Amino acid sequence: MKEKAFAKINLCLDVVRRRDDGYHELKMIMVPLNYYDSLHMHIADKMSMVQNVGYIPLDDKNTVIKAINVLREEYGFKENFSISLTKHIPTQAGLAGGSADGAAAIRLVDRLLHLNIPKDKMLELAAKVGADVPFCCINKPAVVKGIGEIIEPFDINCDFEILLVKPKKGVMTKKAFENIDYQNCIHPDVDKLKQALENDDYDNVCHNLANTLEASSFKLNNQIEDIKKQLMEIGFDGSLMTGSGSTVFGLTRDIKTLEKGYNIMREQGYFVRKTKILQ
What is the pLDDT of residues 203-213, one digit of tens each? Predict the structure, then answer.
C-alpha cells in the first residue's frame, strides 16, 4: 500500500513567546505542497525498512518508526511491516519532510489494520510523533497555533507559482529558536495574510509574508538571506524562508519569472523545485 507524504511551507510564522515549559507558542499559516516523498508499507513477519538515500535506523529517531510505535502502544497490535521510503524532500529544510513521512505512516497503518482512527484521536497521536505531524496528517491550508496541535483549516482562493530553493547546508530548528532576539524580532500579522489568501488579494499575500525565525537563521546560514535577495532581484513578487530554514521560496504568477529563477538558482548549485499549493 502506498501513501504520499506532502511537504509544507510556512507563508507566515510568528513565534509569539517562549512558554514556561520550554516550548514556543506559535501562530502560523502552513500550506501543503504538491511535492512529496513516497511511502510503501505492507504487513510482514518482521520489521524492515529501506530507503533511496541511505540507511535509516529502526528506532524512534526515524519518524516512520516512531509513528508506528506510538500507534502500537495505543492500540496494542502485533503486526510488523515491510517499509520502503522514497525521499524527495530534503532534510533540515523547513519543509517538514520527516513529519510528512511520519504522518503518512499513521495513515497507512490506519488503513492496513482497519483501525478507523477518529480525526481528533489521529491528531492527538500525531502530536506525540512531532510538532508538524498533526498538520501533515490533514494536508490542508491552515492557521496553526500552540506548538502545532491547534489546526484551523481554511480555503485558499489565491493561485500562484512557487519556487523552492535550498542551499546545501541546513539549519537545526533548535538552534534557530535559541538565537531569537526577543527584543527586536518581528511578529507577523497572520490574520491579515489569511484574509488575503481567502480573498485572492495576491499583492497583500506577497506583502505580508513574514517569519520571526528568519533573522536568527540568517546568522546560522548567510546563504539563506542571499537566496531571498536574489529571488526578489530576479522578479519574484514575494520571498520568504520557510520554517526555521534553510529553504527559501519565491512567489510569482509569471511563468517566465518562475523558469528564470529555476535556471539561475540551479546553475548556482542550489536544490530547486517548482511547485504549487496542494488543492
Answer: 999 999 999 99
3-state secondary structure of 105: helix
The dihedral built from the CA positions of residue 226, 232, 234 and 236, taken in this order, carries a sign that is positive
| Catalytic residue (one of 27, 132, 166, 228) | 132
Determine the Cα–Cα distance for residues 57 and 210; give it in Å rounded to an integer. Answer: 36
Region of residue 262 (left: phi > 0; alpha: psi -120 to 50; beta: else): alpha
DSSP-derived 3-state class of residue 130? coil
Q: What is the pLDDT of residue 55?
A: 66
Task: Identify the active-site residue in 8, 27, 66, 194.
Answer: 8
Question: Order of strands, edge to edge, in the sheet holding 271-275?
Answer: 238-241, 248-252, 161-166, 271-275
Backbone angles phi, psi at 75, to 5 degrees: -110, -10
The pTM for the full model equals: 0.95
Q: What's the grid cell of residue 140?
A: 490542508
